[in-house]
Give the backbone structure.
Amino acid sequence: MIYSLKGKLTVKELGFAVIECGGVGYGCKTSYNTIASLGEVGSEAMLYTHLYVREDAVELFGFATQQELSCFRLLISVSGVGPKAAISILSDVTPEKFAFLVASGDSKSFTRTKGIGAKTAQRIVLELKDKISSESISGSVSGDAAAFAPSSAAPSDSVSEALEALMVLGYTQGETAPILGKLDPSMSTQDLIKETLRLLTAKNMR
């Protein structure tokens, strides 16, 4: 398994990049957002990767962040959504925006991506919402109460569930726990996720 690549960027095109590591050039298909984040050809670059294997091809996909890689893996787990469609979606939306659309149930926005019809968009939201809510994260979240507001002896069930769901999407506890700790713990899990994603997006736009 190739987890990541770090080396000299030798090719940079729309949807494709080559990183040379130890004299070997690794070609990665990727999103426009990742391409835009890479430096000039000849500079050092790093991509988190996913090796996609099928009967007639072996393809390597690369992403600038772990969040984008996590979103890609979630997308290709949806029935009827292949790597090409996943890359197209992630070229149109950032990982934060993608997570927000899924959490808010906004399937219509996915249809703005070329090749994504209404039925596929609805399937993305339905299957990923379920996956996010049922996915188990290794380790106990409740044991990390210190990451939340000091007034809380322990995070509520909805806060813990929201934190787990955000970690499934590729966000770290360090990114999300401080925000969740400031929100009303009586809010529903879904509302906590949406508000945290909204605040993360606003923070990254500054």
